[in-house]
Hints:
- By secondary structure, the protein is of the alpha+beta class.
- The protein contains twelve helices and eight strands.
- The strands form two sheets. A four-stranded mixed sheet has the order 1-4-5-8. A four-stranded antiparallel sheet has the order 2-3-7-6, with no helix packed on it.
- It is globular and about 70 Å long.
Amino acid sequence: MLIDIETTFDDEDREASAKAHAFAAEVLRPVGLALDGMADPADVIAPASPLWDAFREYNARGIPQLSGAHLDPMVRARRMVIVNEELAWGDVGLAISFGLSEFHKPWIEQSGNRELLERFCSPDRPTLGCWALTEPDHGSDTVAFTEPHFRDPSVVANCRARKDGDDFVISGQKAAWVSNGSIADAAVLFCTLDQSQGFHGGAVFIVPMDLPGVRRTRPLDKLGQRSLNQGELYFDDVRVPGGYMVVGPEFYTMALEAMLAYANAAMGQLFVGLARATFEHTLEHAGNRAEGRTLAQPLRSRLFRMFMRVEAARALARRVAAYGATSPPVLHYSIATKVFCTNAAFEVASDALHVVGAEGLARGSLLEKFFRDARASLIEDGCNEMLSIVGATRLGA
């Protein structure tokens, strides 16, 4: 039996956990399975898709408010951990999509741009955001700011901006891995402004996705996390006002580091949820399979190894979140969270297939989906190998 032995949670935390879990079980798990089974990823985001029912229910049940900005920082950190774990227990792809749906708002709020605030941050008109970072020729190297290539001007970006009077003109492409890219109302676009500095000469723009010159192609047809919409973005001389630049080159690397620290910590929390869901499902299946008999010793040992991985990942994710509530996040700890927890989720899913057997490999089985979803985590938000190099550099290695 898996229980939550966290001693810092109070009654309100556990109530929030129960509320998030009910939403995950009643809405996210069935909707995620339905979206995963759609052969055409365009159907996932079609007007009649259950995706939009899930979004409406997410807001109607007040799930975003469970970890809202009005809370004490330590309480908010605890609630974020709780909500992220429970939502990902239901469906990790949808959990990521929900998390990114408000990604644009903090950037706009910090900019103080009244026009953008009124358009994209009104509580009466929900809008969806996305983080446009990865490029066709550049993946995790775009976040490896500790490495020499990051300041190399010969490494040419696929998406660049140039100053034109009071405006900026954006040209180029972001890769098919932009989460929420096909459905977002606004993109938080990380692109290169000063090519003479390489990636270090980047800037961050808020780009309304209905501007002339913005194009989107068909959503990506993926192996895993099929409920999470991802798609390419093209910028054909897209003109934005100067006030839409929210971070310039002088602070770009600092902003990238802060964003990476936040995102990696959150990804760790999410994939604890997937690891837990996988373990719980496998444990239940193993009990049914044994039917009163003792499960074979190697399978019992494997189950306990899965349990240890889930609990170790959960402990790390929560500890790093608690520290980040009262102090600036430390990047290599956030990276450790993402790398360890995603590896744990994949290893638990792999072990689960041994316990369940061939049934777990069958198309449409829950474990088969968990395995595919977990595999994608090893390369998203920075592949684990590149992130580990950044973390090692921060350790002085």
